[in-house]
Design brief:
The protein contains 8 helices and 7 strands.
Length: 330
């Protein structure tokens, strides 16, 4: 939701006409007169959505989908994030005009604004020596976000996007939240993961696929490569996901919109995605261990602590061996 300056026009604190939002979400309206002085007029994205005010005054985003699966996917992503301890917008499933919708409270308060990754990257000259991921980390840090926080947040959505097979992570659905009074900056929580779980696709398979935003090329699949951009696997306990595919199957079946055979294929494919993520994690750990050992050896050599092994065993006469046939002392 866009923040408006001034207490008398702030959409966080004042009521607004919801007729335009109804028309945007459903395509129909009982009125031909709309007020554009509403938060819906500045809400981006391709899927139909609207802002509404709940009975307790909470600003709620109501979001539809193209296939009907997208709202369910949002609730699944929220549950997955909770399992892994990842900050995320909490989505719940609802119904609007006999269609499934996702509902979530505004992630901002009246003193905050969302700054998209696209805006952050566009404010700094591109450094062609850096990968796009490293460019994002550098620019977000320069914008005022703690480097460790933004690296952890980036790792978070890289993992969730792999597990959910999200194909629509782009520079406008992740970013930073800035307090407009103090200018303090923090990573935005995970949000907008509806285009996942083979939504709208004919086949359910685990072949490599295009991955946005860091390897969004048309010529070569890159989702597996993007998964390897995770910098710190130690924060994620993947054993917590053992029964997650079954939970996903239950949530997808509850709406009655997908056939059981397709749900079973999605469940099996998610088991494989968890297994692949575990393999990449283990590979990363082995690389870190090898690197740490090599670094320690280099440091010992630089400080003169490394010593060559003794040429003879204790108590052995130089030039002799325990096994005269092989010439190797043990």
């Amino acid at each position: 939701m866009t923040r408006r300056t001034g207490g008398d026009v702030n959409f966080f604190e004042n009521p607004f006409d919801e007729e335009l939002g109804r028309a945007l979400l459903t395509g129909v309206s009982s009125s031909h007169r709309f007020s554009f002085n509403v938060p819906d007029a500045s809400t981006g994205g391709d899927l139909p959505k609207r802002w509404s005010v709940a009975a307790d005054g909470t600003r709620v985003l109501v979001k539809g989908g193209r296939t009907g699966q997208e709202p369910v996917n949002e609730t699944i992503a929220s549950s997955l994030a909770a399992r892994l301890g990842i900050p995320a917008v909490g989505y719940r499933l609802g119904e609007y005009h006999n269609r499934p919708v996702s509902l979530c409270a505004d992630m901002l308060d009246g003193h905050e604004e969302l700054v998209s990754a696209w805006q952050v990257l566009g404010s700094v000259k591109r450094d062609n020596r850096l990968s796009l991921r490293d460019e994002w980390i550098r620019d977000a840090s320069g914008f005022g976000c703690d480097r460790g926080e933004i690296m952890r947040a980036t790792d978070d959505w890289l993992l969730v996007d792999w597990l959910m097979r999200n194909t629509d992570r782009h520079f406008n659905n992740f970013g930073l939240i800035r307090d407009v009074d103090t200018l303090r900056v923090r990573p935005a929580p995970l949000f907008d993961t509806g285009e996942s779980l083979w939504c709208g696709e004919l086949r359910v398979d685990n072949g490599d696929c295009r991955a946005k935003p860091f390897y969004a090329t048309a010529k070569s699949p890159t989702a597996r490569r993007q998964l390897r951009l995770i910098s710190d696997w130690s924060r994620f306990d993947l054993s917590l996901l053992d029964d997650w595919p079954d939970e996903v199957a239950h949530r997808l079946s509850a709406t009655g919109m997908l056939p059981p055979s397709r749900i079973a294929m999605i469940r099996d494919a998610l088991h494989d995605r968890i297994g692949y993520a575990s393999a990449v994690r283990d590979e990363s750990v082995r690389r870190l261990v090898r690197g740490a050992v090599a670094e320690e050896l280099d440091m010992r050599q630089d400080t003169g602590l490394a010593q060559a092994p003794p040429s003879t065993a204790p108590g052995e006469v130089p030039g002799s061996s325990a096994d005269p046939d092989c010439g190797i002392g043990i």
